[in-house]
Specification:
This protein is α/β, with parallel strands linked by helices. 30% of the residues lie in helices and 21% in strands. The protein contains nine helices and 14 strands. A six-stranded mixed β-sheet has the order 4-1-5-6-7-8, with helices on both faces. The model has no long low-confidence stretch (mean pLDDT 95).
């Protein structure tokens, strides 16, 4: 752990820098000057040398897509190559946990810390949490952080791929869910999964299991070109295992190379296929367990694995191992 001496602040948009428009709040440029003006007024401002870079386009994070993750990854790697020893990403809260998880897997092996933050209210709004979050994040950087991706919000430093947004209005919007995690740690990462590996967009889908889910629903989704399906199962990884047609749809998708993974719908707990026969049947149909991973982590991990060009067998192997603390 070491203090960051040359920080890049990567401003992607989000509520923290939004200004009012005729259509409502929207991302706005010029945050560098606003940030410097605010810090200049603080008697105890964090003593961190920083440079701000704006992403183009600036986004409301509700519009965040895979290609934006890749652009952030490229900007972060370029910053490290240019001599920055830490990166602070300013990001909207709607998809903040998704981006933190995705970057955790896109930046495996990066030798410097990456910290993400944002706010529930714009920096200029009365009573906003924006400056508290931003200054708190800068103080974390000043004190020193381990390499890897983390998220700072409302006084909490959170693991980049264990965090979810739980509240849409309260300032303490993010938390690390108490999901049971266990998994063998990967002994070493292949070059194909390192932070310098280029990735491609991947056609991924998330489907919850629910009473009334039909084989036809899954078939239509899986035949739309989906390369990976994250199935949100009941409890410890169960679903309608008496529906032979549904199981056959899953089996056929796996045979043609679709990565199928299961996580639990429950805020607490994990997938343990051996507990119930219903879970065992899903595993036999081709699903790999996501253990206690959150939706955000499992989706980001699928994207990083398949986006690196791994085939389904290799992707399953690495999905089952702990790569950066998501399963441990």
């Amino acid at each position: 752990m070491r203090a960051v001496k040359n920080l890049l602040v990567l401003y992607t948009g989000g509520t923290i820098g939004m200004l009012e428009t005729a259509e409502g709040l929207a991302p706005a440029g010029g945050f560098d000057a606003r940030m410097r003006d605010h810090l200049a007024q603080l008697a105890d401002a964090p003593q961190v040398h920083w440079t701000l870079q704006e992403m183009n386009p600036l986004l409301d994070s509700a519009n965040m897509q895979q290609h934006n993750w890749l652009a952030m990854r490229d900007a972060i790697v370029a910053a490290v190559d240019a001599g920055h020893d830490g990166v602070l990403v300013l990001h909207g809260t709607d998809s903040l946990a998704y981006s933190a998880a995705a970057l955790s897997f896109l930046l495996l092996g990066l030798p410097v810390p990456v910290l993400l933050t944002g706010s529930m209210l714009p920096a200029g709004a009365p009573g906003s949490d924006a400056w508290d979050n931003l200054c708190g994040a800068l103080r974390q950087v000043e004190q020193g952080l381990e390499a890897g991706v983390q998220l700072y919000f409302h006084g909490q430093l959170l693991h980049g791929c264990r965090t979810s947004k739980l509240r849409s209005e309260a300032f303490d919007a993010f938390a690390a869910l108490p999901r049971h995690r266990e998994g063998e740690r990967a002994a070493e990462l292949p070059a194909a999964l390192g932070y310098r590996q280029q990735r491609q967009p991947v056609n991924l889908a998330v489907m919850p299991v629910y009473p009334g889910l039909q084989a036809g629903h899954l078939k239509a989704l899986l035949e739309s070109g989906v390369q990976g399906l994250l199935l949100e199962c009941y409890g410890s990884g169960t679903g309608p295992s008496d529906d032979l047609a549904l199981l056959e749809v899953l089996r056929a998708a796996r045979q043609r190379g679709v990565l199928l993974a299961a996580i639990s719908q429950c805020p607490e707990g994990s997938v343990v296929f051996d507990t119930y026969a219903a879970g065992n049947r899903l595993r036999a149909a081709g699903l790999v367990s996501g253990g206690g991973m959150t939706r955000e982590a499992a989706l980001g991990k699928m994207f990083a694995l398949l986006g690196a060009g791994l085939d389904v067998e290799a992707a399953e192997q690495w999905f089952a191992l702990d790569l950066c603390g998501e399963r441990a």
